[in-house]
Recover the amino acids of this structure.
């Protein structure tokens, strides 16, 4: 299936954290507008309400996800019905958890892919955690494979992106490989592009000011941050 995601795109993931000051559809729509002004090629957004709010302010392609259920298991667009909701709200592609973990509805991934293609008519971005999951997702019919879930399914979360997984998948699958997860700096972007990424997704570094503030505050020397003002 032809993807509306252009090669060489920077995709901005406009997702809010529950309880954060920016946790609203309106805030994510503003983030999407800012991303478009800055040159983003697409937006990734969570849930029908946020997808609809972003659809109303931009013509950029939207990668829709629908996070439901327990975050320790399969929860990114876990079912066909959850995919249908974000497509009805305006998503142009659907991203979903394509790890090898058991799925909440017990249906095989291939069946979910077939229904999304046949009944919703949109391409599928498979969020994977490992090389084997990437191969399996492509074999099951994914249109694009993303490294989104590497570092989040056990064994600890590294500080930077999984450049090696991007490289291995890009050399092995006959579909675009999207780099996603912990891409925070221009150097990270160049590293995943050099590894063969078709497009690059950045979320936290752009759309989570609370995290980024804490991240930079943590770099302050302890004595400097507590010294009295003169
Ligand atoms: C693991 C998981 O649930 N990742 C989610 C996937 O949609 C989002 O929480 C991430 O923000 C997104 O993948 C972008 O990554 P980063 O925020 O690191 O640039």
């Amino acid at each position: 299936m032809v993807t509306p995601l252009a090669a060489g795109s920077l995709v901005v993931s406009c997702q809010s954290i529950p309880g954060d000051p920016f946790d609203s559809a309106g805030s994510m729509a503003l983030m999407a507008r800012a991303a478009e002004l800055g040159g983003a090629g697409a937006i990734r957004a969570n849930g029908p309400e946020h997808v609809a709010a972003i659809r109303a302010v931009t013509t950029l392609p939207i990668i829709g996800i629908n996070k439901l259920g327990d975050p320790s298991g399969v929860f990114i667009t876990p079912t066909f019905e959850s995919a249908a909701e974000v497509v009805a709200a305006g998503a142009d592609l659907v991203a979903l958890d394509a790890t090898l973990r058991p799925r909440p509805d017990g249906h095989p991934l291939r069946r979910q892919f077939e229904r999304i293609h046949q009944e919703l008519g949109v391409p599928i971005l498979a969020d994977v955690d490992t090389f084997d999951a990437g191969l399996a997702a492509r074999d099951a019919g994914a249109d694009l494979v993303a490294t989104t879930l590497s570092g989040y399914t056990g064994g600890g979360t590294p500080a930077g992106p999984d450049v090696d997984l991007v490289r291995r998948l890009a050399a092995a699958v006959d579909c675009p490989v999207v780099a996603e997860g912990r891409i925070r700096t221009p150097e990270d972007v160049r590293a995943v592009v050099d590894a063969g990424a078709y497009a690059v997704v950045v979320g936290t570094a752009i759309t989570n000011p609370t995290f980024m503030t804490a991240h930079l505050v943590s770099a302050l020397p302890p004595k400097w941050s507590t010294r009295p003002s003169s």
Summary: Residues 132 and 210 are 34 Å apart (CA to CA). Residues 13, 15, 65, 76, 148-149, 152, 180-183, 201-205 surround N-acetylmannosamine-6-phosphate (CB under 6 Å). The first strand starts at residue 10 and ends at 14. The domain at 10-226 is CATH 3.20.20.70 (TIM Barrel).
